[in-house]
Structures are given as structure tokens and as C-alpha cells.
Amino acid sequence: MGGQVTRATLDSGTVRCHxxxxxxxxxxPNPMPLSFHAITKGSQIAMDKTQRRxxxxxxxxxxxxxxxxxxxxxxxxxxxxxxxxxxWNGALRMGFSLVNPSEINPAWLPRFACPDLVSERGFWARAxxxxxxxxxxxLSFWLDNTGxxxxxxxxxxxxxxxxxxxxxxxxxxxxxxxxxxxxxxxxDSRMVPDEYQNHVVLDDWPMSVSCSDFDLQEEVLSLSxxxxxxxxxxxxxxxDELHFHSVHxxxxxxxxxxxxxxxxxxxxxxxxVFTNRPLRCGECVFLKVTLRSSARNxxxxxxxxxCNPAHLNSNYLPVNPDDLxxxxxxxxxxxxxxxxxxxxxxxxxxxxxxxxxxxxNGDRAYREMCVDSSTPLWMIFHLKKNIKQIxxxxxxxxxxxxxxxxxxSILTNAGSLSADRSLPRPQSxxxxxxxxxxxxxxxxxxxxxVTGDECVICCEQTVDSVLYSCGHMCVxxxxxxxxxxxxxxSCPMCRSPIRDIIRIYRSM
Length: 508
Description:
Layout: E1 3-4, E2 45-47, E3 53-56, E4 64-66, E5 75-84, E6 93-97, E7 123-127, E8 138-143, E9 149-153, E10 159-162, E11 172-176, E12 181-186, E13 190-191, H1 218-221, H2 227-234, E14 244-248, E15 252-256, E16 259-262, E17 272-275, E18 284-291, E19 300-305, E20 331-335, E21 345-350, E22 355-360, E23 366-370, E24 378-383, E25 387-395, H3 405-417, H4 447-451, E26 465-468, H5 477-484, E27 500-503
Parallel strand pairs: 1-20
Antiparallel strand pairs: 2-3, 3-12, 4-11, 5-8, 5-12, 5-13, 6-7, 6-11, 8-9, 9-10, 14-17, 15-16, 16-25, 17-24, 18-21, 18-25, 19-20, 19-24, 21-22, 22-23, 26-27
Domain RING-type: 455-495
Protein name: RING-type domain-containing protein
Region (Disordered): 421-441
């Protein structure tokens, strides 16, 4: 389940940006009980009269909520999960807002808290692991006096969540009733026990702010007008193991595994290209951009996905990357804010905190977007018409010390799938889109998808049902039943409306 990261306007018209009020007091005396904000909420949120219970009416998104008042430092926001729906991936997103929800137009709210809302100034949130989001679980999260956010499950030990929230300012809690989480009951808040108020967390991976991680000379780092000098300095220190995936849009062709060329006369075809494997923890990728001779500048879009490109069909990749946002995996896209000149070098790094840092020609890196870092992520690049080609110069290849052995194993296994298409399709660990399946399921990526042996939704059970009236035989009876529970069920292969699902039985 994914989402576009930068949202300046809404489809229905221009909406003024949310205000930040600099003169707010830092604390609220004698606070009223916590409840959900009655007005500012996602379009799919239904709320009871007490304003303590909410549920998502349909879909998997458009369910962002806020508390009715600011949350005090060390005050636990306590939530009980009252309903889940297993046909979605991804779960609850929790965090804080520096923006008073009463000053927000509900129509401005994006579909997703992560990555859309947190890309706006004054919002912080992160995805909770799916394993904690079971019906009946009581989740608590709070802010300490240094701006760190912690959570606990069923009264257990505190777990560090993320940091960077201004503790000296009033902040409202943000809860996104997302994915498999469908209903939440807001319980009475409590103050964190004294023994947890001095909980110490050491940063596993300090945020990189420049290319100095590569021990390059300072004078080379400042050569923003001399990318060739930066290229010469970088080349000996980068690994060439990362390259482009063989699955790419029809408007592109790969000159080499590291160079993607865009055809000039194919504007109505996809120009998407993926990395051959997921990025590793803290890995930095350097990309060189070449423009067409007639172009003065160019623009590049980039993104991240938990979907293995080997499971996509090149012939059905969309021209507009936003068409991928309704897939069940995590998809996030952003645009480089500054125009590119020929030969420019862009550095991308996704930190373990989910922050994506971008550096232009060796300048200081800035956070451009946030992604769900709990699952392996492939990079995506979208070449617009003035860009002739892009080249992966190389990447760093060291793991962050915060990567567990299990996560490293996941990353290694996920990366190998693109080389062996006979392996079964993996489930995303913390998916970020919510449709039960996708029209981009490849007819070539998985042999079982061709023979009809494996359900295209769960990728585990045998296909035993046919969809009426399109006739596709692609799901098991369990997933078919979940499809029919939706308001507007559609075929995962062709998106045709489903009128009925017929169980079939084979004679052999």
C-alpha cells in the first residue's frame, strides 16, 4: 500500500497549506480526557457518539485521525484494536502533529500518514509492525522530554519508535487506521511509569548529511558545479554490484546493466526502471543523469517499493507512476525539487529510520521523503522526456549496525529473487498499499500464475475458484470470499467487477 509523497494540491482543487501557529503555549493545564477529533478525520472514518471509537468504513486508507487536544510529555496514548481485516497488508500508523487539527481542512488530508502526511512540515508518524496489530491488543505510545517516541504492547517494555518531535511545543497524536487495522478504541490516557521516563536509547545509525561517509576530500564535496570531479573521486570507492533490473518500461532499453536509455519518440509508454535488488540498510546509491542535446534541464522522479520487479509484467507498467499506488505493496514516489543539468550526480540513501536523503552533486544531503523501512525496498526511477539516460555509478555496500541478522537474511533472499523467477512470490513484511491484488501481476514472472496452481492474492493456496463474469481463474476460495466482502469487488487480473465467485473441482 503506497502513496505519493508530495501533495501540494488536491484533485478536487487547490487547498491552502496547513498553518503552523508559532505562538502556542507549551503545556495544557488540567487537560480534558483524550478523544478523537470530531471534525478533522479521513473520509473513510466513522466515529461513535463518545468520539472514542472509530472504524474504517471501506478501502484500506483515507482513515487518518487526530486527538482532540495536545498530548503531554510522557502521557501515554492508549489504543485497543477492536477489528482487523486480513485481506490487507500494512497496519496502524502512529505519531504526532505540531499542527492543530482544528486548523486543518479535512479535504486536505492525504490518503496515507506514511509517507504522504509525514512529508509535510509538522507531522511525524511511523508504521507499527503488523505482528502487534491483532484484535484485542492494547497499544500505547508517548513522547519523552527529548523528542523521542516510544511504544509498548499490552503493557510490555517500551520500544523506541522514532525521534525528532519538538517536545517543547504542543503536539496532537496522529493515528492512521490503516491496512489490516479496521477499528480502534481510544482508552483513557496514563502517564508513563517513573522507571520508563529515563529510558535510554542509543542511535544505531546517525543520519548522514553529506557524502563525507566516503572520506572524500572536502574540496571535492563542494564542487557542485563540477560533477565530473565528483565522479572521479567517487568511482574508486563505490561497488558496481547494484544495477538496473531487466524488467523496465517499454519506453526504455538497457544499454548495459548500469545504463538505461529513454527513447525520444515513446511518450505514451512507460519509462520506469528498477534496481535489481533491494537497497541495504544505509546503502547510498549514486546516479548520473544525461540530458538530450536540445534540453537545458530535466526532471527526475524516483521512488521505493516493496514489490519485487520480477513479479511485474513490463508490458503493463503504467506511464504515470501514480497508477501503481493502489497495489498491495508499498509504493512511494517523489520528484527532485531542483532541475537537473547534463552530467549531474544524485546520491540517494534510505536510513534505518525510513528517511530518504538526497544529495545533488555532493552538496549537503537533505531529507526528501519518508518510506516504510521495515521491509526490503527496491528503488524506482521515472525518466521524463528531457532525460536521455541515467547511469548507476555505484553504491556503498556496508550494512548498518542496526540491521538484525534476520533482516539481513530477508534482504539477501529478496535480492536473489530477481535472478531466479521460479521461486514463489514473497509476501511483503509490512506492505503499504491495500488492494487485495494487482492488475500488474505478471504472466511471465511466476510459472504457477500461468498454470493457475497458486492464488495470485495469498500466493500460498491452490486456485480453486473462477470469477464471474470475467472468467479469470486466479484465486483460492478463501481469498475469493474476502474479495466479495469488499464494497466494490473487482478481479485482481483485469479489474472487472465481480458478480459472483464459483468454486471449481478438478477431476484429476
